[in-house]
Design brief:
This protein is an alpha/beta fold. It is built from eight helices and five strands, in the order βαβαβααβααβαα.
Amino acid sequence: MSMKKAVVILSGGLDSTTCMGIARDQGYDIYPITFDYGQRQKREIENARQVAAYYHTAGRHKVISLGFLKEFGGSALTDESIDVPEAGHMGPVDSDIPITYVPGRNLLFLSIATSYAEVIGAEAIYIGVNALDYSGYPDCRPEFIRKVEEVMALATRVGVEGGPIRIETPLIHWTKAEIIREGNRLEVPYHLTTSCYNGQEKACGVCDSCRLRLKGFEENGSKDPIPYRV
């Protein structure tokens, strides 16, 4: 019997890898897709490959180049002339959009993942967006996801024919601690992931992403299995 299919947008980070575990737990045959968008943390692409192999999906794992985003710049993740912040706030989202926001990134990711999903007959796309914690990214909000789903239904053959592709965002209202708790329950391979914005062999331990990740493990009473410089 053929299984239901889902495309998982896999960065190689903690959140997207948790989405892989959730999609698998929910009975989906997983088709991971990773984007090389000129990010300074190139290491995460190799991490994504390792995660895909762990879930026995390496043969169908797509790595798509979006290098033009580096040419545009405008983000600390793609423009090396902009310093990665090391001491951002760790509380709820406020009105500020951080310099680590990559303009249009999730919009592009979801558009390309939609094309892939329609070709392979997938009924869902999983993306690890999160509207809580410190992010403040406009393309991680529930209203953004709803609007993209509406466009997908209008712009795809399957949508017009009455079978629109869904965007699944299981982490969108969870804290990092809640995400890690669920990932631990599902035995998600966090040892194969990276969250650091700087992309070195060892995670820096001081950027916002590292700090939030470490805080989530601490709140769960568990140890982060990846190495840190600090």
